[in-house]
Amino acid sequence: MEPRQRLLNPKLCVHGFRTKDLLKLLGDNFRNLSQIRYELRKLIASGFVEKKKGLSFYRVTDLGYKVLWVKSVSNSCFAEPMISMTYKKTVTQVLSQPSILETAYRQINNSLSLITKELCLKTAA
C-alpha cells in the first residue's frame, strides 16, 4: 500500500496522528522521523494535511481525503483497465493463431504462382 493511502486509515481520522504513529505505520517506507516530517510538510503545503496549533498532532483535511481517496481508487481501478485487458486477450489470440486474412493472402499467393507457372509452361510449349 502506498504511504499516502495509509493516511486514509480510520484510526488516524478520529484523533489525528503524530509522526511517531506514522513511523509505526510506515516503517517499511521510511527509515526515520525526519523523512516523515519532510513528506508531511509537502502535504501541509498542498493543503491535504493540517497541524493542530500548539500540539504535535496532524489531521488530514477534507480536501486531503478527497484527493487521497480519488488517487487510491484511480490507481486500483485504472492500473489494469478492463478495455486494455480485453485488448490484450485479442492481441495474444491474434499472435497465437494465424488470422483469416493471412490465410487468404497465402491462398491468393499460391494461386497466382500456380497461374504464372501454367502460363510459363504454355508459352514454352
Kindly describe this structure:
By secondary structure, this protein is mainly α. The protein has two domains: 5-78, Orthogonal Bundle (Arc Repressor Mutant, subunit A), CATH 1.10.10; 82-124. It is 67% helix and 5% strand. The protein contains six helices and two strands. It has helices at residues 10-15, 19-25, 33-46, 62-78, 82-96, 100-124, and strands spanning 49-51, 58-60. The chain has a two-stranded antiparallel ribbon with strand order 1-2. A hairpin with a 6-residue loop joins strand 1 (49-51) and strand 2. The longest helix has 25 residues, at 100-124. The mean pLDDT is 76.
Using only C-alpha atoms, the radius of gyration works out to 31 Å
Number of domains: 2
Strand order of the largest sheet: 1-2
State the end-to-end distance.
Answer: 80 Å
| Strand/helix succession | HHHEEHHH
CATH class value of the largest domain: Mainly Alpha
Structural class: mainly alpha
Q: What is the strand content?
A: under 5%
pLDDT averaged over residues:
76
Low-confidence stretches: none
